[in-house]
Structures are given as C-alpha cells and as structure tokens.
Design goal:
Immunoglobulin-like; seven-stranded mixed sheet; TIM Barrel; eight-stranded parallel beta barrel; Rossmann fold
Length: 652
C-alpha cells in the first residue's frame, strides 16, 4: 500500500514529491462525451492534476440510494470520470462535501438535510449515510491503493454558525440550543457567564443567541458598530469564540466520519479567504491541511494589491503547506458586476504575486467553464480560448521552472498581526465591509475588516516597496529579526511577555502607537513595557526614539509613515536589492536545494514601466537571469516590465 503525506511544503506519494498545480473541472456540468477532450486540453495547458466537487443531491436518486456509475444518467458516472482521469495521467483532488456550495442549489445536501444546522445530530446522522456511500465509491481510486486521488476535502467554506436566513428560520433556534450548551460547558456557573458577557441571566436555559444578521462568509458587519449591536462588546467576543468552536467541532466530526470509512489520503478543509470567524492555527490540529479561496477584482486595482498580498503572506506563515484550492479563474455570474471582466493577464499576474508571497500549491477555480460561470480558459466542450493559451502556458511553464516547493522568502522584517485586535475592531469600527464584496467601488474601499493600525502599516510599507512578511503573533512561526507592531494597547499576558523576551533576546521591535498596557479583558495592567519607558532615550540616528532592552531594542516609528525606507535604514534594516520605482516591488527567495537566490519583480502599475533596481553596497550579485528563457540582464541596468506583470530571475 502506498503512503500519501503532506510535509516539507508539498504532497508526497511514497516519498516522491507531487507538485500541486491543479484546475477545477466539474464532470456533472460538462457533456460526458467532452470529458476526454477537456483532459486533453488541460494537458496542453500544462496540467496533470484536476479537482472536482461531488454534489450529494445530484447523485442521490432517492433517499439513501445513490448512482455513481451512470445507471440513471451518464452525467452521474463518477466512476467513469475517475477512471478516465487516471488513464490520462491526472492526480485528483476530490471534494465530496457534504457541503460543496459550488454555486449549486442548497450547496450540495438534499432539502431534507439542508433544513438542519451542520453541527446538529440530525444533520450529522444524514451526512454519515452520504459519507459512507461516497467513500465506498472513492476508495478504489485512492492513491494509497494505486489510484489517482491524493487529497480529499471535508466540506467547503465552513463559516461558523451563520447558517440561518433570518431569526425566524428554524435553523436559528437549533443553533441557539447549541450555543446554550456551549456556554454551559464553557462557564461553570451562570454568574461566570454574566460577568464575562455583561448579562444578567437567571440560569443557562434563559441564554439567547445574539441576533446578528448572517451574511455570505460569516457575520454581516457592513454597517454594524458598537452602538447598534444587539449585544455587549464582551458578549460579541464570546460569540466569535463560539463561531470558531462551531467550525472546528463540525469539521472534526466530518473528518472522523471519512476516516471511519477508510479514507487514508490527507483530508483538508477549505476556508473563505478572510480570517473571521475561523482560526487557521487551531484548525491545523483538526484536519490534515487547511486551504483557502480568494476572489478579487480584475488585476487588483487600488489597494487590492496590498490586501491580496497581506492575506497570502499571513496565510503562508500559518501553514506547513500553504495552498489555495480555489484560486480565482474566471467569475461567477452574479459577481461580474463587482469584479469586472476577468482578463487573461489576471490569471498570470495574481498567480505569480501569490507565489511571491509564499504560496506552495494552487488549484484554479474554474479552469473549465460550466453553467453560471464566465472567463475560464477551457469551455464545456474542451476548447481552449485563443486568448488564454499563451497566458496559461506561460504561467504553468514558469511554475515548473520555479521549483516553488524549495523556495523560502528571505526578508527579515514582518508586520505583526493579532487576531483579537481584528475581532475587537469588527465590533467597534464603523462602516464594516468585507474585503472583497461589500462595496460598489471596490478599488477605493477602506478595508475596515482589519484593525486600522495593522492595515495602514502594512499598506504604507508595501507602497514604499518594503517586502515584509505578515506574522500571526499567536502562531508557531519564529519571529524575524525586525518586527513591526501597531495595534490596540491590550494583549493576553503570555503573549506580551513573549514580546518582551523577544526583544531581550536580540529582536528589534518597531512600534507605531502604543505598546501593550493591559490584558485582553482590559483590566489587569502591565508594568513590563511601562517601566521601560522611563529609560527611553534618543539614538544618534535621525530622530529615532528607542529603548535598549537586553540584546535587542524597541524603536518608535515616526508618525509620518511616508518615508519607511529611510527610517528602517536608521534602525539597521536594508534589502540588498529593491525597487524605489513607485508601484514596482521586489521579493527575494532562496532555493534551499540549489542555494540560488530568486527575485520576483512585480509591476503593479497599469502601464509599462522602466525599472532600475537599487543595489545596496556589499551586494555580490551582478546579473539577473530569467528563469524561463535564461536571458541575462545586468543587475544595475535598466529593465522594462509590462503593465501588471511579474518577472522572475535568478540573482547571479
């Protein structure tokens, strides 16, 4: 029996690395006599991996009875499709739900199951019947048995407990019962909950689920602020914790049901591409892999470039194998008015930007067109769009040459991100919006989904051309030499202490605003950083205020964030090669296998741009060598980069 593992930034089958460059192809939405042609077109575009959903309600011919072999309809012949994928040399990412969404009626489950919340006994009992039957059909095709299936997705886009249409929906009352049980198990006595939530319930039976409107992707936060919330701020924070727990508890049940049926390939979860109400770090302990999906406006106009890179850098820092199992390729019918027409250039540009941020695996959704979807490279009959051929082939060829599984970002600076600060802002900031959907003019939206101290810092650093990571303070990743911190003055005690010890051990903490002063409840005060402020002194550097602490130091960033590069030089940080041309960004990586350095040069401008890189004194590199065509360019010479394009070079 073969072994399928996730390790070292990739998927390995019997110890052999399998690059994840995949495309979504929905067999049941495509004419069966075109399946072979579609696979051939995918091969022509450089793909050898395919992903598909499996809709529960479509394959269920009557309750508890299923057709996977085409007895009732040739479109239901999943077995034939899997055999064909194997024959054509494709590895398969299979996504059988129970929920698939997939722009499909009710998202996958039949109506008799849909009426129950996911994490209810009724739904889980019905889902187990589906999982037992679909697992029986899939097991002969698992890679562990010599078949093509290397990954299986447990459900899709689980977004906490926000499943109800309105407060009269029976689902709402069911979820309220689950919430009461959660509160009862979390708090020993009702008075403990009352104190934590600023409530006055007589007993647990009286506890109510706060009436906050549900929305696609989670809570509808577009216009909510503290003054209009039907709950206290502290109760809102408990509600956030409940949403995370709900997601984790449900996915754990689904994961265990698949394992019970003998699914022995890695099982992963796919989340929507923003943080709340999910916790990537905790979910890593529930499933074998956490992936995500993102959908943005064509070519990332305005501040969408900064939003996109911030999200992918944060995600890359939390996963041993950062993947996007639904990477935007085309657009769903209702979203065209928001995203605009998706150009071919968007396909290459966003792919390269994501890999520059640390992505290690990708699956394009949709690579093959179908009902209610536009602009995919391949149509339902297997024909490749003429305009897509060159762009998609350029993308897959570049990814093949990149050896991306061996790349490691070399930047020594990161912006700190702290989930409780985001969650606090969600319920106190005004004009809340989702990053991607909730605004007519998406290129000018305020990105209020994240707390402004962190977002404004990252955005201004990006505009200055500083290639910084984004690191979750609660994650397992080691903090870099330079850590940029901007946030609210509250933080849980163990983390504040870790921040202090980081500086004492030699870390350089760059602070914009206040240091942590109180714990996460807002009550207990810290003396840890406060005492240090007594010894604040001015360095000889130009106006840089600092506190020496052990082997490290705390530096206070200037209020004016327009000249980050000069300030960072004063505190000892400089990139060996970078761009000072507005809208042109560099990202340096080390190939850990060959020890070669690779630089991504991104032109985020909507015009062709002449670039002359700034090379710091002491840099030993002389040339840029294109990784695809091996053309050589002088490092200190002039380089032309097309509009919204990314060039990738070896530094030699």
């Amino acid at each position: 029996m073969k072994k399928v593992e996730i390790k070292d930034n990739g998927i390995f089958v019997d110890g052999k690395y399998v690059p994840m460059v995949s495309g979504e192809f929905h067999y049941w939405r495509t004419p069966p006599d075109a399946w072979e042609k579609v696979f051939a077109s995918m091969k022509e575009l450089g793909f050898s991996m395919v992903a598909t959903y499996i809709p529960w309600d479509f394959h269920e011919i009557k309750k508890g009875s299923y057709d996977f072999s085409g007895k009732t309809s040739e479109h239901k012949n999943l077995v034939c499709w899997l055999e064909l994928a194997d024959k054509k040399g494709f590895k398969v990412i299979i996504r059988p739900g129970p929920y698939i969404y997939a722009e499909w009626n009710l998202g996958g489950p039949p109506d008799y199951a849909f009426k129950y919340p996911k994490y209810s006994e009724e739904f889980l009992e019905l889902a187990e019947v589906w999982i037992k039957n679909i697992s029986h059909a899939l097991k002969p095709f698992l890679a562990t048995k010599g078949g093509p299936i290397i990954l299986l997705q447990a459900c899709n886009e689980t977004v906490g407990h926000y499943e109800y249409a309105n407060f009269d929906d029976p689902k709402y009352k069911k979820i309220e019962g689950i919430y009461k049980q959660y509160i009862k198990e979390r708090f020993p006595k009702i008075k403990d909950f009352n104190e934590a939530a600023d409530k006055n319930y007589k007993d647990f039976s009286k506890v109510e689920l706060p009436q906050i409107k549900a929305g696609w992707g989670g809570c509808n936060l577009r216009e909510i602020d503290l003054g209009t919330l039907p709950a206290s701020l502290n109760e809102c924070k408990i509600l956030i914790d409940f949403g995370k727990w709900y997601t984790e508890a449900y996915l754990k049940e689904i994961y265990n049901l698949y394992k019970k049926q003998g699914i022995d390939v890695p099982i992963f979860a796919n989340l929507v591409g923003w943080y709340w109400p999910q916790n990537w770090e905790r979910l890593k302990k529930v499933v074998d892999l956490v992936s995500m999906d993102t959908y943005y406006q064509n070519l990332l106009p305005g501040d969408l470039y900064a939003a996109f890179t911030k999200l992918y850098k944060l995600f890359a820092g939390t996963s041993k194998f950062p993947t996007a199992v639904e990477f935007q390729c085309g657009v769903w019918d209702p979203m065209v008015k928001i995203t605009g027409v998706m150009s071919e250039r968007h396909f290459y540009f966003t792919t390269m930007v994501a890999f520059a941020c640390g992505l290690k695996g990708i699956s394009y959704y949709m690579l093959v067109n179908r009902d209610n979807w536009y602009f995919a490279p391949i149509n339902e009959w297997g024909k490749i769009r003429n305009d897509a051929v060159k762009v998609v082939n350029r993308t897959t060829e570049t990814l093949e040459k990149l050896s991306f599984e061996n790349l490691r970002r070399t930047t020594k600076i990161a912006v700190a991100w702290y989930a409780p600060h985001t969650e606090h802002f969600l319920f106190t900031g005004k004009k809340q919006v989702h990053l991607e959907f909730r605004h007519k003019d998406i290129s000018r939206m305020p990105f209020a989904e994240d707390y402004p101290q962190g977002w404004d810092l990252y955005r201004s650093l990006t505009r200055a051309g500083i290639d910084c990571d984004v690191i979750s303070l609660t994650g397992e990743r080691e903090w870099p030499e330079f850590l940029v911190y901007g946030g609210y003055p509250f933080m849980e005690w163990p983390l504040a202490e870790k921040l202090y010890k980081y500086v004492c051990a030699g870390g350089k903490l760059i602070v914009y605003g206040a240091l942590p002063e109180v714990d996460i409840t807002g009550h207990a005060h810290y003396d840890l950083f406060k005492d240090l402020l007594k010894y604040q002194r001015t360095c000889r550097a130009k106006g840089v205020f600092s506190i020496k602490c052990g082997r490290g130091a705390i530096y206070f960033g200037p209020e004016n964030q327009t000249n980050h590069r000069e300030f960072l030089k004063e505190v000892g940080y400089a990139e060996p090669v970078h761009s000072e041309v507005p809208g042109v960004y560099t990202s340096i990586h080390l190939n850990t296998k060959t020890k070669k350095q690779v630089v991504f040069i991104t032109n985020n401008n909507f015009e062709r741009t002449e670039v002359k890189l700034t090379v710091e004194r002491g840099c030993k590199h002389q040339n840029l060598v294109d990784i695809v065509d091996n053309k050589k360019y002088p490092l200190r010479g002039q380089l032309t980069i097309d509009k919204k394009d990314v060039r990738v070079f070896y530094l030699t």
